[in-house]
Amino acid sequence: MSGAEEAGGGGPASGPAGAVPAGVGVGVGAGAGAAAGPAAAAALGEAAGPGLPDEAGLAGARQLQLQEAAGDPDAPPKKRLRAAEAAEAAAAAAAGSGKLEERLYSVLCCTVCLDLPKASVYQCTNGHLMCAGCFIHLLADARLKEEQATCPNCRCEISKSLCCRNLAVEKAVSELPSECGFCLRQFPRSLLERHQKEECQDRVTQCKYKRIGCPWHGPFHELTVHEAACAHPTKTGNELMEILDEMDQSHRKEMQLYNSIFSLLSFEKIGYTEVQFRPYRTDDFITRLYYETPRFTVLNQTWVLKARVNDSERNPNLSCKRTLSFQLLLKSKVTAPLECSFLLLKGPYDDVRISPVIYHFVFTNESNETDYVPLPIIDSVECNKLLAAKNINLRLFLFQIQK
Ligand SMILES: [Zn+2]
Ligand SMILES: [Zn+2]
Ligand SMILES: [Zn+2]
Ligand SMILES: [Zn+2]
């Protein structure tokens, strides 16, 4: 929110672009002063290079990257072109044509979060714009509160079928300069990805000794200084062995999961089905959202799945953190205990990201439902995607364990 407002308020090119490289220079100087070895001094020369020309700002930095790349036979032409483009953009902005951009920011921004939309843009039937993130959030919140979702501006009803994307706005936004998330300088969108990935002095990097356990994360312009002073390469073999052991362990856990899935796949009795969770409300005084699938048959038994949000927290709509948990219920009678492993994965038509977790339960006639277990969705954003949808479509795998 504040990002867009700042970008709209301050002069886009002259202000931030001029100020930041100076800050970068100071940062490097202070860091190198602390670690005053000869290697650090050499590192300083290298790291401070692109940050030096304060006044020239963006164009100057490009120029230097251009010179740096001179040794690389196939990089220069491209870089020269990009540098020229960036210089042009900076010059144009300084000459005052940036004003239109500023005006466009407030015209094209999401009416909910006031940021410039990064991906899809939706509009209500009266034309109010919402970025995809805010749109999904509004739908998910409405689902939790059992209300019809409405446009925050005009209160007209919104839904996936009532709102459409606005391609013209999406394209217009992609033509506008946007801010680097690390150094806050403005770049044409076409250059931004490359800048954030490869060129930004403030981008987050990791120590090259990460492989032997160095946990350091920090801005690129501090990387050389850190690596010169990093304690990890001087650790003894014994110390390293301990660190590597720990790292191996987490890797092993992941391998175990996949190995156990593989071994489950060799079982004689495997069943899977697509399941559709539908939203319902409890009939408590304060009704709560829950999900339930229709009965389905797998491995010759009848089952139902239930799911709930934030483990039935009182007001999940007040929390930013969203989770789903689920329960598997056996609906038919069994003559002997039924030992099963089960696993929920994403359905064939949904794009939610779920990491596989295998659960285990012995079903009998007396104990025919599992506890609620977490549905391992990657994060709250993914969870909101599921809540915003009409139904939740997943795929259930059941493995019957026979001894
Ligand atoms: Zn938004
Ligand atoms: Zn509206
Ligand atoms: Zn940057
Ligand atoms: Zn390190």
From TrEMBL:
InterPro entries: Sina-like_RING, ZFTRAF1, Znf_RING, Znf_RING/FYVE/PHD, Znf_TRAF. It is found in: Cytoplasm, Perinuclear region. One of its GO terms (cellular component) is nuclear envelope. Residues 156-214 form the TRAF-type domain. Pfam families: Sina_RING. The keyword Magnesium does not apply. One of its GO terms (molecular function) is zinc ion binding. Its main location: cytoplasm. Interacts with LGALS3. This is Zinc finger TRAF-type-containing protein 1. It comes from Propithecus coquereli.
